Amino acid sequence: MQRFTDKVVFVTGASSGLGAATALRFAREGAQVFGIGRNEAGLAALRDQVAQCGGSVRTMVVDIAEPAQCRAAIAACVEALGGLDVLVNAAGRHAFRVTAQVTEEQWFEDLAVNLNGPFFLCQAALPQLLARRGNIVNVASIAAQQGQPYSAAYCSAKHGLLGLTRSLAMEFMKTELRVNAVCPGGMDTPQVRNIEFPPEADFELVMRSAGVRGMMDADEVAAVITFLASAEASAIHGAVYLVDGGKTVG
Fold it and tell me: Which among 15, 68, 77, 206 has the fewest CB atoms less than 10 Å away?
């Protein structure tokens, strides 16, 4: 399929995991991809993968915790590729911490990556997306649908990201802009494989968030993201798609 020929797609978190899988999927479908991340080595690997499939990608090292860098990245994308049709906020940060031990710095860092960054990117991208009848796909989490232990900052930010999605969907209801969200469950990504729990964690509580079907491949979630960004999903606006292998069904 070539659903994104002549479309410009901006993907965050593109240096690894879901962001990289999403950027590669868009590139394979004909998009001009602008991928950002904090890891240049990961972005270089993405460039190699896209080159192998004959796609188009530009990359930029960006820390989305910094609003000025968010605005600069959107401006760089528009300057380099002539516009913007799709914004995918796929970057995320999750660290398990005992709530009583969370520092102010850790709290604000988690919110900056998981909520503030997506807000400032959406804000900067809106003029282009409105002009080109584009769309936004925000990547939240099943943590936005249920509580998770040792994840106060992460859950708060992801709940907030769903609020941002729905607020934008309502505000721009009378335009052709579409705004939707995806809530993935656990994926087999470097971040998840390297995750650590506090020594005093109660794993009976932790395992309540585990699914019977195990971890998903990031490309399975990327497939839903690209669908929501495509013309096939033209009637979908303000929706939240659970992509979790049934973890939240009960």
Answer: 68
Instruction: Name the catalytic one among 10, 26, 154, 241.
Output: 154
pTM attached to this predicted model? 0.91
Q: Which residues are registered as beta bridge partners of 5?
A: none
Quote the mean pLDDT of the chain.
92
Report how far residue 157's alpha carbon sits from residue 163's, in angstroms, rounded to the nearest whole number. Answer: 10
Rounded to whole angstroms, the Cα distance separating 158 from 144 reads: 5
- pLDDT digits over 113-139, tens only? 999 999 999 999 999 999 999 999 999
150 is catalytic: no
Q: Cα separation of 58 and 20, whole Å?
A: 12
Q: Which of 88, 36, 85, 24 is nearest to 62 (CA)?
A: 36
Average pLDDT over residues 22-26: 98
- The pLDDT tens digits of the residues spanning 133-191 come to 999 999 999 888 888 877 899 999 999 999 999 999 999 999 999 999 999 987 566 77
Provide the residue ranges of all domains of the chain, joining segments of one domain with +. 8-243
Judge whether residue 193 has pLDDT over 90.
Answer: no
Mean pLDDT, range 221-243, rounded to an integer = 97
Class of domain 8-243: alpha beta
Q: Give the integer Cα–Cα distance in Å for 244 and 43.
A: 27
Distance CA 40, CA 42 (A): 5
DSSP string, 96-153: ---GGG--HHHHHHHHIIIIIHHHHHHHHHHHHHHHTT-EEEEE--GGGTS--TT-HH
